[in-house]
Design a protein that fits this description.
By secondary structure, the protein is of the alpha+beta class. The chain is built from 1 helix and 3 strands. The structure holds zinc ion.
Amino acid sequence: MPALTATVFNGQKRPIAWKCSDCETVFALDRVDAILTKKSTEQINKDFEMHCKGQHPGSQIIGLDIPHEDLGGWPTP
Ligand SMILES: [Zn+2]
């Protein structure tokens, strides 16, 4: 089943681009210095969902975890 795999990181070691694990399609934030916010995470998940519906129909979609806050918060483990 397709999942998003972080593939590009910025200077703060935060992911800014992800690859579909079932093909090589890349999903990236708008800018390299963009911070992964709740909004941008939802956007990536939405793009990925659209991609999966078109390219991997019938598969279970595993998106990114949505950060709890809009403070650039990558969820703490
Ligand atoms: Zn794919």
